[in-house]
What we know:
Shape: elongated
Largest sheet: 3 strands, antiparallel
Number of strands: 3
Structural class: mainly alpha
Number of helices: 7
Order of helices and strands: HHHHHHHEEE
Amino acid sequence: MAAKKNSAARRASEAARRAAAAQRIGPRPVRPARPRHLYDLKPPGIHYREWDTPKGTDEEVMNKVNSTFGPDSEAALTMRFVLEYRRTYGPRIPVMAARQLDQIVVRTDLATDIAQTMGVPPEEAREHLHTLHARGVLLIADDGSLWMTAPPETGTNDHWVFVEKKADAPPEAAAG
């Protein structure tokens, strides 16, 4: 019986020593999780093969584009979109996928339906769609359609799961 008492006493003494050390050291700082961007999730498909990474601040980039091509040029309009996307998608932008999402917003009733359901203006619904896309909750399939998805490492899946089609690829714009 004496051996058991010594064991119990040793365990209690060790636990007290650990508690005192933990109190002296203090709580461990919790490091915030690294923000995950869509690029980090490595989405599948042709719309996610190329990623644009504008160098410099928004102002520097726009000044360079404006001085080279002019402020009313197609290049300046495109760069304004790219810089807007950078605020949502992070430093690497899937421009082809983001532009396809904008085409779905413009040429289908998806954003209007979402805006009515949420009670927000269509432009805010567009922003919500891009935010969900940037988190990997929505993806553009190879055929240009929009799908609700489950990114890898959500739940038990270790790969992308296309859950539900939200919009078909929009019809091509009529050539004018």
